[in-house]
Queue: 3 jobs
Job 1
Amino acid sequence: MSLEDIANSLATTWLAETLTDSTWLFGVVEAVHVMALTLVFGSIALVDLRLIGLAQRHRDADTLVRQLLPLTWGGFALAAISGTTMIFANPHGYFDNTFFRAKMVALVLAGLNVLLFHYVVQPRAHAADAPKSSNTLGQRLSGGISLLLWLTIITCGRWIGFTI
Amino acid sequence: MTTLHDFAVWLAHSPLNAAVTGPSWLVPEIQVVHIVAIAAVVIASTLINLRALGLAETDLPQQTVVRTWARVIVIAVAVLAATGILLVVSEPGRALFRTVFWVKLGLIATALAVTAAQGRTGPVPTAASRALAIASLLLWVGVIFAGRWIAYAEGWPGAFS
């Protein structure tokens, strides 16, 4: 099954027809997507800035992550659902779009960065037994890479609207 | 309406319009900065509001949370105003001629007034601070919806692109 076949089958679903028939439904889904992505980006960027050492330095990074994680995941679930819904409105347009493809690659890389942070960077930082206010090189890199990837994701997302 | 139309036409012929619409990548990049600043407002107001509702940052006094994040809101709103003005100048016949744009500005003013009122709350949330928190959440959601809706709303007579 090629990407083309998937696009074809998505385009003939009830959801695709509902979205293309309505003049306002796509706009509502887009507004939900904007709301969700600001929640995801806002909470992630805050943790990233803490890891780089540019914000919330008086607080322990783990506490901050624990406070923000429900917002990040709640926002991400909403962004994933609304984003997937938007694809149904024009599956060929999205799958063929370079910015959409780049955005998906950046999302995967951001996911890998999170796994690396969780299973390698944080355990090492804890083992190093450094004062909680200072950041290890690994933590700073994790934060910087995450920030760059999420800015790429937002930029690509915005460019999809101009190129699709 | 003619005054608004004249103003929009004047903006369309201004050097700033020429500067912003010159490179084709500039408007999308201004929109990216606008979205990043929205994210700053959303996370800041969400933390203030969830603190008032007892759902986050409960280890900190309410005033501390408000003081920390209200500052972020003020800076982000300044960035939003600057990028928003540039976006209006880039397409003067669009947003200014849509009711939803003026509704959005009204909602922003109200949301900022609510944030200012939250600045006067005490260390422990009261019924009033909970009400302000819910109002703030709804207002910012309204601002985002209204902003997105500029692209969908019907323009007034005199609108142009």
Job 2
Amino acid sequence: MTEGPQVNLETELAKLQQAREGIARVVVGQREAIDQVLMSLISGGHVLLEAAPGMGKTLLVRTLAQVFGMRFSRVQFTPDLMPADITGTVVLIHDDQGKTHLEFQPGPIFAQLVLADEINRATPKTQSSLLEAMQEHTVTVAGSQHQLPEPFFVLATQNPIEQEGTYLLPEAQIDRFFFKVQIPYPPEKVLEEILELTTGAEEVKAEQVLTPEDIVHLQRLTRAVPVASHVRQAVAKFVLATQPSDPKNLKEVQRYVRFGVSPRGGQALVLAAKAHALLAGRYNVAFDDLRAVLFPALRHRFNLNFEGQAEGVSVDGLLAKLFSETVGKQAV
Amino acid sequence: MTRVSAHPQLRGLNQRLERGRTRLQLVRFGRGLSWGILLSAAVWLVFSSLRWAGGMQPGAWAGLVPLYVLAVWALGVALYILRTPPSLMHIAQRAEKHYGLEERLSTALEVVHRPPRDTAHAYIYEALVRDAAAKSERVKPGQLFEFRPPRNLLYALGIGALALGLQFAPKLAPPQAPVQTAGLSPQERASTVTQLERVTQLVRRDAERTNDPYLQATVRSLEQLKAQIRSGQLAGPQAQQEIARLSEQIERGYSLPGPSPSSQPATSNSPAVIADNPSRNAPQTGSNRPQGDQPGQQNPNAQQQTGTSPSQQLNNLAQKLEAKPQQAQDKSPAPPQQTQSQQQGECDGAACSDIYAKARSQQTKDAESATRNINRPPGGAAGGFGDQAGKEGGGKSGARGGTPPPRTRAEQVKLPFQAPPSGRRIQILGPASASTAANVTGTVEAQNWVRQEEVPIGLGYLAAPNRSIVSSYFTPAKETQ
């Protein structure tokens, strides 16, 4: 057995619950989005946040950074944003002795929590530089590789309304986001509460509960959560059921789906279910965990074809149907 | 950190799961048995329905079939259940679904045998096992696998009640009389066939030796009877009756002595007696009865012989036939039996033989046309022998085409041969008066003879003297056809 750092499981989980509650006090009425972001964080994944302007995306990220004590940076993506503006660049430095030398100036990506605001407004070249950092947790500039700090968590946002002057993220890059979180418009009571809290004299702030090291420990614990073999088999069956090329699958899948869930999507589903189980205070993955993380983990990995989009087929609806016909049969 | 596999609380979980497995096996057996009971009830209902509808005779085996089905089914179910015991993982999953344990037990069972890779895994595994053990306290095998009567039993009960009701319900159709059930037992049938084979061989031997068509026909009849008995087409009283009839005819044809009651009245079947009392002619006597005349009437002789088994009857016949060749070699074929008038001295055996000899020579001398025109029955000769005998109604072919003339009194007929007892009839011509017949010597004017009697022919007619008499004396034309 490989010995790792000593962790107190119950304490860590209790702190996680405290952090959850602390964020929920600031970001009102978005408990589901908060949980999904937390799950992504302790799973080591990144989040694509899709919400209309003014829905509290920046507030959520900032609160998250406060609660976990993470270094936070924000990058506003624009069409003229260059990769070096994100990753950093090598600059010529004049020292006190009159000599010059090249020195790497880290970009905003060198933070533990990066908010890539309106990521779809940058060119694909810039987008790809961010996505490389997300995947490898390293940045290569001028032939030198630079390690990003741990934990490294990117929360990218995109505006679902404005599409003019944007560059849609390719599916291969979207697939690298662990979760695609959608923040719905708040209902009346929540909106009233938001207005009450945010327009007063005193601004509500969250306290730091966890440290970045705790996040790393939680990420390790999350990966250690076991999955029963029959649950794993059910996930594999479900992932295969999303493939339109298999004639045994549902006719709706064959007709409306452009491509199904990738193996990375299956990994994300299981890992997210582990995080969900841990967040729920359990130490094993249940079918309910899979159901809870199904949409944020797979809705951006399950693409409809033109016919499906034209006929208004719901990705979430189709996923739910497939899940109930494969995993759900064993779950109930 | 303690080793997960040695966690003491898992023992409790294992014990509960083991108890649950045993209980599940019992529940599975009960469920499988209920299907067997349902099947047995259905089988019982089928048999009861068949019996009620009259399509099947009741028998003890019919009542036992559902029990056999149930026993075989129960055995099969028991074997299947023993060979396919559910795993503890399966029991754990059932418990998780029943108690909402969210895959804790099954995951813990897997984790127990898996060494943790690092401290994080160890902590998680430890916590999981502890959690699963705590949650497994809720698992009650009795609640998990309840002994509830399967719904199949209700259906089986209903079907069984229906079948039981059919047992007491009035039959839809009256029970049919047993046709073959009272027949020969397999042993008796085999013995009968053996004896028939034996008799057939004896008769065939004579048929081949004498080249006699009647014996050959008899052989065919015997073969046919044997085949019918062997295949079961003929059994019981019908078989016994047929055997008795054939035996009787063979005995009479060979003029065999025997205890058969049919042989006694044969002596009274002389044409004189027949003519004397036509109403009790052959049909009344059994031996001379033209069997085609009354096909539905049973042979009284056969009825009397039903007391003995057919094989025994055939055995007696075969013994007589085997004893016969020595007698036949020693002497010539038995002379025709004498009529009552002959016994009274009007015509002794030698005189009658002379009469026949003279008649034969006369027949030879007469012109064929004159003799045949007179003697041949209008409409054709009396045809059909052997196996045809007794099977056509009335055997009227010999008398076809005309009404027999008024018969003279029997006392006036001097025909010293026994009337052939069979279905077919033949016209017998003789002298117009008894005195003429008695004084016949030398050449006889056969043209002046009139038809004295119309008698049936059959196996009794097969005796060589009679055949020669008939063939040369009265109906020479028919044997050439």
Job 3
Amino acid sequence: MTNERKGSDGSNEADEQVSRVYRELAVERAPERLNEAILRRASKAARPPYARSILWAKPVAWAAVVAICLAITLQVTQMPAPEHIPVTLPGMSPSTEAVEADDAAASMPAKPSSVEELALPEESAVADETTSGIAQRRVDETVARKLEQTQTEPATDPLRAAVPMVTDGPAGHDDASTTTTESMRPDMAEFELQDVGMPRSAEDAARPRSGAEQRAAVSALASRSIMAEERAADCDEEARATPASWYACIVDLEAAGQTAAAERQRKLLAESFPDFEMP
Amino acid sequence: MLARAQSLAEADRPLCGTARVAYAPGMEPAAADSALMLRYVDGDAAAFETLYRRHNDALYRYLLRLCRHPDSAEDVFQDAWSKLIKARASYRPTAKFTTYLYCVAHNCFIDHVRRNKRHRHAVDIEPDMHPDPGEQPDAAAERSLARRRLDAALLELPDEQRDVFLLREEAGLSLDEIATITGSNRETAKSRLRYAVAKLHAAVAEPAETS
């Protein structure tokens, strides 16, 4: 019981007697279970917040952070280094080449319903003003032919299927070195993929492409190759009209000492007219 | 710690509602209570236990006789200490700790009364009587009778008068402090105390035949 008493406030004999009797009466004590509960609550509240938190949470959080950092580092270090091999075409800088190829792919119609609709838009085909008409026609023919070929021979990867149709010569070569071939080696296919700025990562390569995207990519590649072919042609359109005139042109080239060009024209002739028997 | 206590004391912030009682000279135990409370605010749980053990029984008796029901008294008792623990960060030693504690308990009791009317159904509180072995049987019987009369008279008192009497007997508070806690002025508290003491004295001093 509290012993602080203020006897000065109205204290008298009766007051003292009542107080004495009350002290004898009031001997109750707070229940021990209440004491324990309140003291437990008080000691819990007195602990700092971090001590109240789960003890294993902090090390586990640190371990998780370290593991995530390691995983990101490993993934970054295992990524293949980007290889930039610029391809220079006549009248086209390496940077604009990729941009134009992308633009051509992006500007293609979403889902052409027929082969005729696969014709490239004008802006995508116009890379060289002088050969635009002929190139456009040849692009249409080539795209239609290759699409038919790819439909009969389903390819696992549309990009891979599209690549062998078209190829350019190695980067840095002159115009004459640019050619088109149906059968291309796998390493050349890889080279072509890198040249045109195709996705390099395995994730992008594995990503399924829609039909419109496939056709857009095929058309872009075909247009580029045809334009390059036109530029590189040593025998003009008139000479290549028939196998005989084409062969005559090849003979003229050989006679003029342009054996490399003659050899390329010979291959083109063999591909364009497989039935033609060259002497 | 001391510097903090002094700075807090200078803040002159009320402890509990209208409590504005300042330190008075010669209040060493109260100052110790405040120091213990400040140590508890700083995280010293042992200081709180000391403080609790010093006041828990008196506060329990105060609430037991104020509520007139043990269950209600326990509820209010827990509520009062819980509020004190929860509001420890805002504790300012501008008055005696006892004033603060009983002010919180008084407010908890009022809240409890407002929440329910259970306190009106009073039950007899049987005090644990342990007669002195060396005391004469007649004297022991007379004392026991006086206690019972006082207990009955205490239960018969109006709430305000019983509150004032209990605050003085259990907490040892002055009239000013009682007036602060009960929200009245000093003269009102003094008048209530005088009436309460007179009634209790009359009950205790009654002849044995009339009881």
